[in-house]
Design goal:
single chain; mainly alpha; 8 helices; 61% helix; 160 residues; globular
C-alpha cells in the first residue's frame, strides 16, 4: 500500500531541493501578473508567447520540436499554431526533405510582434538587480544545468 502520508511529507521536507524549488516558484509567481499583463497587450497566451519565442526569424522549426520545447502534446501545438497562423504571425511549410513533415516559420508580422513581445514581456524584472553581475552569471549557469537535466530526461517528441 506504500508509505504512510506523514513519512512521505517528512521525506519531502528533508529533500534539499525543496527550499530552492519553492523559492523558484515564488519568484515566478511574483512576476506572473507583470508577464501576463505584457502578453495581454499582444493578445497572446503564455503558450503562444513561448512558441513565438522559440522561433528565430528566418529559421524553421518542426512542430514536434515545439511540442518538446513547450512540454506538451503535439495536438496542443496544432491548436496553438492554428491560432497564430490565423493571425498571420506564423505559417506552416512542408519540409523540403520530407513533405510529410510540417515546419513552422515566422511571417514578417510575426517577427515584428515577436521582437516587441520579447522586449516587453521577456525583459528581466528589476528584482534581478539585487544580484551582482557575478551572481547573475552563476544563477544563469545553475538554471542552465537544471534545464539541461530536465531536457535530457524528456523523451524525443520527434522520434519516429
Amino acid at each position: 500500500m506504500g508509505e504512510p502520508r506523514s513519512k512521505r511529507i517528512a521525506d519531502l521536507r528533508d529533500d534539499p531541493r525543496n527550499g530552492a524549488w519553492r523559492l523558484f516558484l515564488d519568484v515566478m509567481l511574483a512576476h506572473k501578473e507583470r508577464f501576463s499583463a505584457a502578453l495581454a497587450k499582444f493578445d497572446l497566451s503564455p503558450p503562444q508567447a513561448f512558441l513565438l519565442r522559440s522561433l528565430a526569424p528566418g529559421a524553421e522549426i518542426r512542430m514536434c520540436h515545439i511540442a518538446s520545447a513547450l512540454s506538451c502534446d503535439a495536438s496542443n501545438v496544432t491548436n496553438l499554431v492554428d491560432r497564430l497562423e490565423s493571425r498571420g504571425l506564423i505559417e506552416r511549410q512542408s519540409d523540403p526533405a520530407d513533405r510529410r513533415i510540417r515546419n513552422i516559420v515566422l511571417t514578417k508580422a510575426g517577427a515584428k510582434l515577436r521582437t516587441q513581445m520579447l522586449q516587453e514581456a521577456f525583459a528581466p524584472p528589476e528584482s534581478l538587480s539585487a544580484l551582482t553581475p557575478a551572481e547573475l552569471s552563476t544563477f544563469e549557469s545553475l538554471l542552465s544545468r537544471v534545464l539541461k537535466a530536465h531536457q535530457a530526461s524528456e523523451p524525443d517528441a520527434c522520434a519516429e
